[in-house]
């Protein structure tokens, strides 16, 4: 039978023969779905609607053949007729019209157009993954408009704990997140980087996977963002969104989609943002102190179909951004017992004193009160420029009616340059203390070249898939930290002597001036107020540490999704991971591989309930070209993850889910500040010998019929993340990970009217990260945020566009996110931001 091989855009009107069958394609994986529902409707007569589901007996997962004239399914097609197999993207709709030359029949063909609506089943009975799917409409409703980020979309999902600097910790891990874009996994970017990898305006669907991973998924597995970008259109269309508001914020997005001849299509998207409150500030009141930032995103997707069996896709993306490292201006008097943000690391108060809780050596250098101006008053000026850019060329080949091949080549560059225009310093005549810690210059770049191949072979009740991945990387980094005070120099020499200027720690002497030694014969040094040896430089020249890394990540997998029965699905297989990295720091070469079994089950005791459970052996690679420059090199993280969940359909469009997970981790990879406690924008990685995470998630989801009415979700997560042993520098691991958070709540509800006007809100609550404790209190600092979105719909002003109002942080909460954390420094919530926008299609 002939078939329309390519998924049809949502605005298409297509002529088809009398007999049709449908295959619903998951846009995230480009593979057929067995859990979709196809609804056929003639004109506006909803009572005449027919629902088709994929046949479990068909290897292609096609629906039964449907006769558009008799409006019934048929078991066979007459010899003189042919049926069209139409591939449809999940969550898309299109208009079908009977071809005149195919409508000859004793029965009159329908005169009205046939509207076909494709919807995913809420209870995905055969899906084994623990995941949530977010559609393009939900992104627009709950994502925040033109200035939205991936974090603004996922921040309220189950298992996600929000942190500063755009970090989101999924199921108790730091930032081990992979991106899969249009079926192709992207290589790793720099740790701590904030520039965008994918901009929400280019996303058609986003599937957030958090557990029960089939072997095809790997690399980073705290969470996997399985993204399908916009599919293109049969006729030229465009859309713009212009937004402006508080903190001199301006955001804009311009999108174009359309055909390239008869066999191709294009998607172009251009987005830009600018604001005076770019990052989480270091104080709750003055949030614009040297805190401006801007970003640009340029996206292009070109698709060409040279034949009915082949599809070529070229994707280009570039996301540069520039932002200022925000300055401290001082904290309110309520922080006097913890440090009001003056001096080194903000540990000193406005009156020059150091709170006793911050003092290690009461008689050490710097213990006496020293009144200092703030970073802002001292004109600290540090800027960071980042870029993520990648290009992917993929070839999708339909080998036969059922089998398919995906071949993709990806090139990715991630860069981050940190520069400063701080006041100059004389290293040989440093002040004891200064609110400016360092004058840093750091250049970091990593280049990836990746090849990915995947083959899918459906066979009766089995779907076999295997693939290989080869990612080659080269990274170059340079670091120079000019200390602005003696206390900063002492700390730098302890972190890494290679970063300090020539010199040596000052040895203590007795009353006669003789050097002192301890009982084991080691020198005794003079220490400062924070317990660091006082370092005496002998040169004004501060060295630049140059780092070159090279290596690869390779993987191969094979899996089978076996439909054991109508109620039981079993996904099983193996993934082989191999990571190798060498560097010029004299550290040993990291060369590690692992064979990881995956066992994932889905069982449906009845048509309303789905039970999933799994065992996964996982292998998470460290940052390939930006790991530790201190201590032992970063090792890959390995873990055993156990998942179990029960999901039930409790009403029309309503599901509830209860999930429990356990992670037993070795060589846990965490990310923190290169110089602990400093806030100069440089992050690095660390290994903990042992990590353990377990948690419970409850979620409720509501989906309205036809996208009209009440839409929403609410979830609650209880989690504990606790490392053990030592880190890669030999220091003992903390009792809890800095990002550990006990109780997390996320919720979002919205209502859409028939004219597409809508109102929605998103609420997040966290009981406090482990890094949010403000001494002397032992308790964590909770935080919450409510965001509101109002839209008139596109029919406003006689169809000229939609007027939108977004209010971020409605109640202007400015709670502590982190406080004097070695991993994050001190950060507060950003204040209320009111944004007005105009959006329209053309």
From TrEMBL:
Name the protein family.
Belongs to the TonB-dependent receptor family.
Matching InterPro entries: Beta-barrel_TonB (IPR000531), Beta-barrel_TonB_sf (IPR036942), TonB-dep_rcpt-like (IPR039426)
Q: Which residues form the TonB-dependent receptor-like beta-barrel domain?
A: 370-767
| Lineage, opening ranks | Bacteria, Bacillati, Armatimonadota, Chthonomonadia, Chthonomonadales
Q: Give the subcellular location.
A: Cell outer membrane
Keyword entries, A-Z: Cell outer membrane, Membrane, TonB box, Transmembrane, Transmembrane beta strand, Transport
**GO annotation, cellular component aspect:** cell outer membrane
What biological-process terms (Gene Ontology) are attached? siderophore transmembrane transport
Major localization class: membrane
Any one Gene Ontology molecular-function term assigned to this protein's record = siderophore uptake transmembrane transporter activity
Output the Pfam families linked to this UniProt entry: TonB_dep_Rec_b-barrel
Q: What topology does the record note for this protein and the membrane? A: Multi-pass membrane protein
The record lists the organism as Chthonomonas calidirosea (strain DSM 23976 / ICMP 18418 / T49)
Q: What is the protein's name according to its record?
A: TonB-dependent receptor-like beta-barrel domain-containing protein
Q: Which PROSITE patterns match?
A: TONB_DEPENDENT_REC_3 (PS52016)
């Amino acid at each position: 039978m002939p078939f329309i091989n390519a998924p049809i855009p949502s605005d298409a009107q297509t002529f088809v023969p009398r007999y049709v069958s449908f295959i619903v394609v998951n846009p995230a994986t480009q593979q057929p779905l067995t859990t979709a529902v196809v609804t056929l409707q003639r004109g506006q007569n909803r009572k005449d609607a027919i629902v088709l589901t994929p046949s479990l007996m068909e290897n292609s997962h096609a629906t039964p053949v449907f006769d558009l004239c008799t409006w019934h399914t048929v078991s066979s097609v007459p010899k003189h007729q042919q049926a069209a197999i139409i591939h449809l993207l999940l969550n898309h709709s299109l208009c079908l019209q009977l071809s005149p030359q195919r409508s000859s029949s004793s029965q009159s063909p329908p005169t009205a157009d046939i509207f076909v609506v494709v919807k995913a089943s809420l209870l995905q009975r055969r899906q084994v993954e623990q995941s949530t799917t977010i559609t393009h409409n939900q992104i627009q409703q709950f994502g925040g408009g033109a200035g939205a980020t991936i974090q603004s979309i996922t921040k309220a999902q189950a298992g996600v704990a929000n942190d500063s600097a755009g970090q989101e910790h999924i199921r108790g891990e730091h930032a081990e997140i992979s991106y899969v874009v249009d079926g192709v996994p992207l290589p790793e970017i720099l740790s701590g980087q904030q520039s965008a990898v994918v901009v929400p305006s280019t996303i058609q669907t986003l599937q957030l996977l958090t557990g029960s991973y089939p072997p095809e998924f790997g690399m980073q597995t705290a969470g996997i963002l399985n993204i399908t970008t916009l599919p293109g259109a049969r006729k030229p269309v465009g859309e713009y969104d212009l937004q402006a508001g508080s903190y001199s914020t301006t955001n804009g997005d311009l999108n174009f989609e359309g055909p390239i001849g008869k066999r191709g299509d294009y998607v172009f998207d251009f987005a830009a943002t600018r604001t005076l409150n770019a990052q989480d500030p270091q104080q709750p009141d003055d949030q614009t102190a040297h805190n401006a930032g801007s970003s640009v995103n340029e996206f292009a997707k070109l698709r060409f179909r040279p034949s009915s069996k082949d599809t070529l896709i070229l994707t280009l993306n570039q996301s540069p951004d520039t932002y200022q490292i925000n300055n401290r201006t001082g904290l309110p008097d309520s922080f006097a017992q913890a440090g009001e943000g003056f001096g080194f690391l903000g540990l000193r108060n406005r009156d020059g004193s150091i709170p006793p809780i911050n003092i290690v050596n009461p008689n050490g250098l710097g213990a006496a009160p020293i009144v200092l101006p703030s970073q802002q008053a001292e004109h600290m000026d540090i800027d960071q420029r980042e870029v993520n850019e990648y290009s992917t060329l993929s070839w999708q080949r339909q080998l036969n009616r059922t089998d398919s091949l995906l071949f993709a080549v990806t090139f990715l560059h991630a860069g981050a340059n940190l520069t400063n225009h701080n006041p100059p310093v004389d290293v040989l005549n440093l002040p004891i203390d200064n609110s400016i810690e360092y004058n840093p210059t750091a250049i970091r770049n990593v280049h990836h070249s990746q090849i990915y191949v995947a083959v899918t072979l459906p066979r009766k009740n089995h779907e076999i898939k295997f693939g290989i991945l080869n990612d080659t990387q080269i990274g170059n980094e340079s670091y120079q930290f000019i200390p602005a005070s003696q206390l900063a120099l002492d700390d730098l020499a302890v972190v890494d002597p290679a970063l300090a200027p020539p010199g040596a720690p000052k040895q203590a002497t007795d009353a006669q001036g003789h050097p002192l030694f301890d009982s084991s014969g080691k020198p005794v040094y003079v220490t400062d107020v924070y317990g660091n040896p006082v370092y005496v430089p002998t040169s004004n020249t501060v060295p630049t540490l140059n780092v070159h890394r090279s290596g690869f990540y390779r993987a191969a997998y094979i899996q089978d999704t076996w439909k054991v029965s109508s109620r039981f699905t079993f996904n099983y297989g193996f993934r082989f991971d191999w990571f190798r990295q060498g560097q010029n720091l004299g550290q040993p070469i990291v060369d590690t591989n692992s064979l990881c079994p995956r066992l994932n089950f889905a069982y449906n005791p009845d048509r309303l309930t789905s039970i999933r459970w799994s065992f996964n052996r996982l292998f998470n690679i460290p940052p390939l070209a930006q790991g530790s420059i201190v201590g032992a090199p970063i090792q890959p993280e390995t873990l055993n993850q156990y998942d179990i969940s029960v999901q039930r359909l409790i009403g029309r469009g309503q599901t509830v889910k209860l999930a429990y997970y356990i992670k037993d981790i070795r060589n846990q990879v965490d990310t923190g500040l290169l110089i602990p406690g400093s806030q100069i924008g440089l992050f690095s990685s660390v290994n903990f010998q042992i990590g353990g995470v377990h948690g419970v998630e409850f979620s409720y989801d509501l989906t309205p019929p036809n996208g009209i009415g009440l839409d929403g979700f609410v979830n609650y997560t209880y989690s504990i993340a606790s490392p053990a042993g030592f880190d890669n520098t030999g220091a003992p691991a903390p009792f809890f990970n800095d990002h550990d958070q006990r109780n997390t709540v996320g919720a979002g509800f919205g209502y859409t009217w028939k004219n597409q006007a809508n109102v929605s809100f998103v609420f997040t609550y966290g009981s406090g990260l482990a890094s949010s404790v403000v001494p002397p209190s032992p308790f964590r600092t909770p935080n919450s945020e409510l965001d509101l979105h109002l839209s008139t719909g596109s029919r406003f002003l006689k169809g000229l566009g939609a007027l939108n109002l977004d209010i971020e942080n409605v109640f202007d909460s400015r709670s502590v996110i982190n406080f004097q954390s070695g991993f994050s420094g001190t950060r507060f919530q950003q204040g209320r931001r009111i944004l007005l926008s105009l959006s329209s299609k053309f």
